[in-house]
Automatic annotation (TrEMBL):
This is Exocyst complex component 3-like protein isoform X4. Residues 60-96 are annotated as: Disordered. InterPro entries: EXOC3/Sec6, EXOC3/Sec6_C. Belongs to the SEC6 family. It comes from the Eukaryota. It comes from Balaenoptera acutorostrata.
Length: 726
């Protein structure tokens, strides 16, 4: 191939660039750079007017080794010569701006010539300039011809190489066509060889079968022998025999192309029978660890060896290891939680007590007996603890979803699950290792379960407490109509066990819940205060009915007032002992409703007692004022006598209720006395009668004062005597 030329460096002056560009265009050359040729460089310098700078053209002579270009005739030259535009002596424009470049070149040449030959003395050197320009023109033409010759050589070489490439492509196309024809022939030949190939495959299968035939004949006997080993619980030997049969099946499977022989049809059921035997041994791990640990170890070894085995047969994995783990868990749950809990009184408490003893013993046996028979990665103690925990949790959930528990069962279950199960007697025992820790698992009872049990317990206890309180009230009310006076204590005060029974029932229920949780204790405390308030309201209603029936004569009580005074002692006993229902953790003021109910009960009892007193004094006060009253103190003496007789029973009333009762009695008698005087009518006939009336009033006031002061002294002396005796 020809070498490319390197274009000369462009002149720096505008005139030089225009002249060279015009000459290059007229000669058919290019402006630009060409590749440097190999060989020495020669420089041609143009010397001219001062405005024309030296122009250096770098070119290489035509290599002597390159063949000379062939002579071109006129016709070929005309074909290669581009068409000339009209009015132009140069070849056609190679660039759109050729005409403008030519004009600029001519203008620059004229400008250069006018500058050179501006003075007359310079015209003498015109011949020198002409000859110099002729030489320069000839040099440029020679260089242009050399460049064109190099271009032509390169084009010729490229055309020749393209012809060679075309011939190579045509040869490759012919070769590919021949190969395609050969491949079609080979495909037809392969189709004809297909029966032969099938016969070869059958021959190979028959050859493999002929080699394995003695072993295949022994397969039925081996199957029966393996089944016998399984029935005899010789699991390791049975697994070895099964493995040999499966290896034989694998050896026949590949040569036969995946064809299953009928002789191996019983192999799958046999493997399943062995798996069931291994699973059954794992399910009875606790018993076998004590009675036959070798059988348990054999089952575990079979499961582990089978887990690490791989086969080329397209069979599902047996996964006997997971089956063993599931059997261990199911067997353990079946032992302790398989039998449903029979409902009955005390059945739940007995079952929980049995679990309290059995579960730690089971964990200890697992650590001492079962764990050495199993692989270390089974984590037998941890598996035992988690299985027992999950089974117990599921059993308790089923229990709570069934019929509603009784109060005792709900309390027992709450106390057992929250305190006993995780306590030192069971899962928190120091004898158990850290693997038996279940504190990080889900609790036996969820918050919803605890809420449910607490609600059941509070509701049941509330119903029971209400029933007991009603029985205590009914028993006390039944005594109000007796022929005997109320019972008294050694000090002579009216006494009944009812207040102590009421407070004991409530206090015991509050105290016993302290064993479970603070939330349950708060619930029961609120329930106790509510029931006590309801009891006090029922007590007040019973007193009202008792008084109404007595006053109407429907059920006359022989000792009406003494029993009213006895109830006042009941109220005092309740008021003095109600503080036992306020533990330290209870907020102040929690007993305010109960205390208000007690005050209301006290007020109601005092009112009924005073109504009975007024009923006795009313006939006497009806005679006030009168001539009899004015003339004689007998009327007021009768009032004082009856009042003193009525208040004699006050000595059986405890302090401070007796003080309140005496004060209210004095107030009631005085008000009734004044009301009778104000409502009555007495006309004094003179100053003597008015003086007599005034004296009577002073005398009555002193007599009434002396009456109640005497009653107070009697009560004080009695109370002092009781205190000394106490």
């Amino acid at each position: 191939m020809s070498q490319w030329w390197e274009y000369p460096a462009l002149p720096r002056g505008p005139g030089e660039r225009a002249i060279l560009k015009a000459k290059a265009i007229c000669g058919g050359g290019r402006t630009g750079r060409l590749a440097k040729p190999a060989g020495p460089r020669r420089s041609l310098q143009l010397r001219g007017a001062p405005t024309l700078r030296a122009l250096t053209w770098t070119f290489a002579p035509t290599p002597t080794s390159a063949p000379a270009p062939p002579a071109m005739d006129s016709a070929a030259r005309d074909k290669m010569q581009p068409a000339l535009p009209s009015g132009s002596s140069c070849p056609g424009p190679e660039w759109p701006e050729q005409e403008r470049a030519e004009q600029l070149a001519r203008g620059a040449a004229l400008k250069w010539a006018s500058g050179i030959f501006y003075r007359p003395e310079q015209l003498a050197r015109l011949g020198q300039y002409r000859s110099r320009e002729v030489q320069r023109t000839c040099s440029l033409e020679a260089r242009i011809k050399s460049v064109v010759q190099s271009y032509l050589e390169g084009v010729k070489t490229g055309v020749r190489q393209l012809a060679w490439a075309l011939e190579a492509v045509q040869g490759a196309r012919e070769a590919l066509g021949q190969a395609h024809v050969l491949l079609q022939g080979m495909a037809e030949a392969a189709q004809t060889l297909e029966p032969l190939r099938e016969q070869v495959v059958q021959h190979k299968q028959l050859q493999a079968m002929s080699h394995l035939l003695p072993r295949l004949r022994a397969v039925p006997a081996a199957l029966a022998h393996t089944q016998t080993l399984i029935d005899a619980q010789r699991l390791l030997e049975a697994y070895v025999s099964l493995w040999e049969l499966e290896q034989l099946q694998e050896e026949t499977w590949a040569p036969l192309g995946g064809l299953e022989l009928p002789v191996f049809e019983g192999l799958g059921p046999l493997a399943e029978a062995l798996g069931q035997a291994v699973e059954a041994a794992a399910g009875a791990a606790g018993r076998l660890a004590r009675e036959d640990p070798a059988l348990l170890v054999a089952a575990m070894r079979v499961a582990e060896v089978d887990a690490g085995r791989t086969t080329s047969l397209e069979q599902a994995a047996r996964d006997w290891r997971q089956r063993c783990l599931r059997a261990l868990q199911e067997g353990l749950e079946r032992i302790h939680f398989g039998t449903p809990l029979q409902p009955g009184p005390g059945a739940l408490a007995e079952w929980l007590e049995a679990l309290r003893v059995a579960l730690p013993a089971e964990l200890a046996a697992a650590e001492a007996l079962v764990a050495p028979c199993c692989p270390p990665h089974y984590n037998v103690v941890r598996l035992w603890a988690h299985t027992l925990h999950s089974g117990l949790r599921r059993c308790l959930q089923q229990l709570l979803e069934g019929p509603q528990l009784e109060a005792a069962d709900a309390f027992t279950l709450l106390h057992w699950a929250l305190h006993v199960y995780l306590g030192p007697e069971m899962m928190g025992s120091l004898e158990l290792g850290p693997e038996a820790d279940v504190s990080d698992l889900e609790p036996l009872l969820t918050l919803e379960n605890i809420e449910q049990l607490e609600t059941i317990f509070v509701a049941k206890v509330q119903a029971s407490v209400a029933q007991w309180l009603q029985k205590a009230l009914d028993g006390d009310v039944a005594e109000w109509g007796r022929e005997q006076e109320p019972d008294t204590d050694p000090s002579g005060f009216y006494h009944s066990p009812m207040p102590a029974i009421v407070l004991q029932i409530l206090e015991e229920n509050i105290r016993v819940t302290r064993m479970v949780s603070e939330s349950l204790q708060r619930r029961v405390h609120g329930m106790a205060l509510s029931e006590l308030s309801a009891f006090l309201r029922s007590f007040s209603d019973a007193l009202i009915r008792f008084s109404r029936d007595h006053l109407r004569g429907e059920a006359t009580a022989p000792h009406y007032v003494p029993y009213l005074l006895a109830t006042l002692n009941h109220q005092s006993a309740l008021s003095s002992s109600v503080s036992v229902l306020q533990p330290d953790w209870v907020a102040p003021g929690a007993l305010a409703p109960v205390e208000a109910a007690l005050d209301e009960l006290q007020r109601r009892i005092c009112l009924l007692v005073l109504e009975a007193l007024l009923a006795e004094l009313q006939p006497l006060f009806a005679a006030l004022p009168s001539r009899r009253w004015l003339s004689s103190p007998e009327l007021l003496d009768d009032v004082c006598e009856r009042t003193a007789s009525f208040c004699q029973d006050f000595r059986h009333v405890r302090d401070p209720a007796v003080q309140l009762l005496l004060a209210e009695a004095e107030r009631t008698v005085v008000l009734q006395y004044l009301r009778a005087l104000m409502q009555g009518r007495l006309v004094c006939r003179g100053a003597d009668e008015r003086t007599q009336a005034a004296e009577r009033l002073r005398h009555d006031a002193a007599q009434l004062r002396e009456l109640f002061l005497g009653l107070v002294r009697i009560w004080v002396s009695r109370w002092a005597g009781v205190s000394v005796v106490g």
